[in-house]
Design goal:
The complex is a heterodimer of chains A (358) and B (163). Chain A folds into two domains: 238 residues, Cytochrome Bc1 Complex, Chain C (Up-down Bundle), CATH 1.20.810.10; 82 residues, no CATH class. Chain A is globular. Helix content of chain A is 72%, strand content 2%. Chain A is an all-alpha fold and 358 residues long. Chain A has a two-stranded antiparallel sheet. Chain B is elongated and about 90 Å long. The longest helix of chain B has 44 residues. Chain B starts with a helix and ends with a strand. Classes of the chains: A mainly alpha (358), B alpha+beta (163). The interface between A and B is medium-sized, with 16 and 14 residues.
C-alpha cells in the first residue's frame, strides 16, 4: 500500500482534504499591531505545558494529610522533581500573564465586536477558570504561604451577604483550612476545572477558526486592497511555533535559574509570617478591597467593595453589548477610556500592594 | 532561533545550486536542534519518573538484615519480613532448624505462604509448591527454586544475609 492509497482511504472517512483546503485558504492579517496575535497561542502553549507538567506532578503528589510531605519529596528527593514543580509554577504565572496580555489586546483592538461576542465571553470565562486553577493549585503544597493565602482568599466569598459563609465553608470543607480543604481543592484543580476548561477552550479556538483574526479599527478603515495578509499555513503557523519556542526557552530559564521555593509546613498554631501577600494576579483586587476598607470600615466596606467589584467585572464582561458599532463613535471612545482606566487601576493597585508589604 | 526561522525565506530567492545547500543546511541544523531539545526535555522527565526504581535499586543493594527478637519465634511458625524491598520469610521448623528464603514465587511473582501442617511452601496464585527446607520447586508451575539466605541465630536477634 502506498502513502497515497493510505491517504485516500483516510480522507474518504475523515475528510482530510476539506481540512487541507480550509488551511490553504485561511489567512492572517499583517499590520503594525500583528504582534498581539501571538498571545492567544502563547497562552495555549503554556496551558499545554501545565497539562504535561501537571500529570508529571500527579505521579508523586498525595493530597490530604500527606500533601506537604509529598511535595517535599517531589522537590528534594525525586530526580529533577524541583524542575518539574518549578516549571509548573512558573508556567502557571506566565500563562495568567499572557492571558491578560491577550485579553487587553483583544479589548483595545475592539475584537469583541460583532460577530466575536462569544469569543470574548468564552475568553473571560477561561480567564476566570485560570484564576481558579491558580487559587486552587496554590494551596496544594500546604506550606505556610499557601495555607495563609488560602485562608485570606476564602474570606472574600465569606463577605457576600447571607450566603457567603456557607460558600466559604463549602469550599474549605469545614471551618478551618486543613487536609479536607487540600483534598477538595485537589479534586477541583485536577478534575473539575480541566473538565470545564478544555471543552470551553475548544469552543474558543473553534470560534477563532470560524471568524478569523479581528483587525484593529485603524486597519478596518483601510480599503480591502491596501490590507496585507499572510497564509496561515505554513507562514503564520511557523511564526506561531517560533513564539512557542521562545516561550519554552524563557520558561526553561526561569524554572531552572529561579527554582520555586517550598516553605515550612503549614501549622495553624504558628502565627502568619510577616509580609504575607497573594500572588501578583490577585494583588490588585486584594489591594482594592483593602483601600476601600480604609474609607468604609467594617462590613459596609466589605459589601461596598464586592459591589463595586461585581459591577466593574460585569461592565468589562458585557462590553460587546455596549460598544457594538464599528464606527468609532462616542460609545467606542467611552469603551476605550474604560479600558485605559481598568489598566491603570490594575497597575496602580498592584504597585501600591507591593509597595505596602513589609 | 529567530535566525533559524528566517532561513526558509532565503530559499525563495532565485534557484541555483546554492539554494539546495542552504536548504539542506537548514534541515540538518533544525533536526539537530530538535534532537537537542527532545533530549533536554526527555532526560529530566525520564530520571524523574525513574526515581522510585533507583531508590529501590539502592534498597536491594542490602546484603543483610537483622531481625530483632526473632530468636523467640516459636518452632513451627514463620516470620515475614522485607529483605531490601522484596518480601522474605524466616521459618523456624518443628525440628528446630532455621531457614530463610525469598518469599516471591518464581512463577509470576506472588508472595508465597508457609504451611506448617504440611511443612511446605505454597503459592496461592497458581498452586506452586516448594520444599520448606531447601526452597526447591516441588510441584506446580514454578520454574525455579526460591533463593535461600544464610541464617545466624543470636541472643538479640536473627541475622539473615545473602549467601
Amino acid at each position: 500500500m502506498t502513502a497515497k492509497t493510505i491517504y485516500q482511504w483516510t480522507d474518504e472517512r475523515l475528510g482530510l482534504s476539506e481540512l487541507a483546503a480550509f488551511a490553504r485558504h485561511k489567512t492572517v492579517p499583517v499590520h503594525s499591531q500583528s504582534f498581539w496575535y501571538y498571545w492567544g497561542g502563547i497562552s495555549l502553549f503554556l496551558f499545554m505545558v501545565q497539562c504535561f507538567t501537571g500529570v508529571l506532578l500527579l505521579v508523586y503528589y498525595r493530597p490530604g494529610a500527606d500533601a506537604f510531605e509529598s511535595v517535599r519529596q517531589i522537590t528534594f528527593v525525586m530526580h529533577f522533581g524541583w524542575l518539574i514543580r518549578s516549571a509548573h509554577s512558573w508556567s502557571a504565572n506566565l500563562m495568567i500573564f499572557s492571558i491578560l496580555v491577550h485579553m487587553f489586546s483583544v479589548y483595545f483592538m475592539k475584537a469583541y465586536r460583532k460577530p466575536r461576542e462569544f469569543g470574548w465571553l468564552s475568553g473571560m470565562a477561561l480567564l476566570g477558570l485560570a484564576s481558579l486553577f491558580g487559587f486552587s493549585g496554590y494551596l496544594l503544597p500546604m506550606d505556610e504561604l499557601s495555607y495563609f493565602a488560602t485562608k485570606v482568599g476564602l474570606e472574600i466569598p465569606n463577605a457576600i451577604p447571607w450566603i457567603g459563609p456557607a460558600i466559604s465553608s463549602m469550599l474549605r470543607g469545614g471551618l478551618q483550612v486543613n487536609e479536607f480543604t487540600v483534598q477538595r481543592f485537589f479534586a477541583l484543580h485536577v478534575v473539575v476545572l480541566p473538565a470545564i476548561f478544555v471543552p470551553l477552550l475548544g469552543f474558543h479556538l473553534w470560534l477563532v477558526q470560524r471568524h478569523g483574526n479581528a483587525m484593529p479599527p485603524s486597519e478596518e478603515a483601510k480599503p480591502a486592497a491596501q490590507r496585507k495578509t499572510i497564509p496561515f499555513f505554513p507562514n503564520f503557523i511557523r511564526k506561531d511555533l517560533g513564539m512557542w519556542l521562545v516561550s519554552l526557552n524563557i520558561l526553561a530559564l526561569l524554572a531552572s535559574v529561579f527554582p520555586w521555593s517550598l516553605g515550612k509546613q503549614a501549622d495553624m498554631l504558628v502565627p502568619a509570617p510577616m509580609g504575607i501577600h497573594p500572588e501578583w494576579y490577585f494583588m490588585s483586587p486584594f489591594e482594592m478591597l483593602k483601600l476601600l476598607g480604609n474609607f468604609l470600615p467594617g462590613e459596609a466596606g466589605e459589601i461596598a467593595g464586592l459591589l463595586i467589584f461585581t459591577i466593574g467585572i460585569a461592565l468589562w464582561v458585557f462590553i460587546p453589548f455596549y460598544d457594538t458599532t464599528n464606527e468609532s463613535g462616542r460609545r467606542g471612545r467611552a469603551a476605550h477610556y474604560f479600558g485605559l482606566l481598568a489598566v491603570f487601576a490594575l497597575l496602580a493597585t498592584t504597585a501600591i500592594g507591593y509597595w505596602t508589604i513589609r | 532561533m529567530s535566525q533559524a526561522l528566517n532561513v526558509p525565506h532565503i530559499v525563495k530567492e532565485p534557484a541555483d545550486s546554492g539554494e539546495k545547500a542552504t536548504r539542506r543546511g537548514f534541515l540538518i541544523a533544525a533536526g539537530a536542534a530538535g534532537l537537542a531539545y527532545t533530549a533536554a526535555l526527555a532526560y529530566p522527565i525520564y530520571r524523574y519518573l525513574a526515581s522510585p526504581q533507583e531508590m529501590e535499586a539502592s534498597a536491594t543493594a542490602v546484603t543483610e538484615v537483622t531481625l530483632k527478637d526473632a530468636e523467640k519465634l516459636p518452632a513451627g511458625s514463620v516470620l515475614m519480613f522485607k529483605f531490601g524491598s522484596s518480601p522474605a520469610m524466616l521459618i523456624h521448623h518443628e525440628d528446630g532448624r532455621w531457614v530463610a528464603l525469598t518469599a516471591v514465587c518464581t512463577h509470576l511473582g506472588c508472595t508465597v505462604q508457609y504451611e506448617p501442617q504440611a511443612d511446605r511452601i505454597h503459592c496461592g496464585c497458581h498452586g506452586g509448591v516448594y520444599n520448606a527446607y531447601t526452597g526447591a520447586n516441588v510441584s506446580g508451575p514454578p520454574p525455579k527454586p526460591l533463593k535461600l539466605f544464610k541464617v545466624a541465630v543470636g541472643d538479640a536477634g536473627v541475622n539473615v544475609s545473602r549467601t
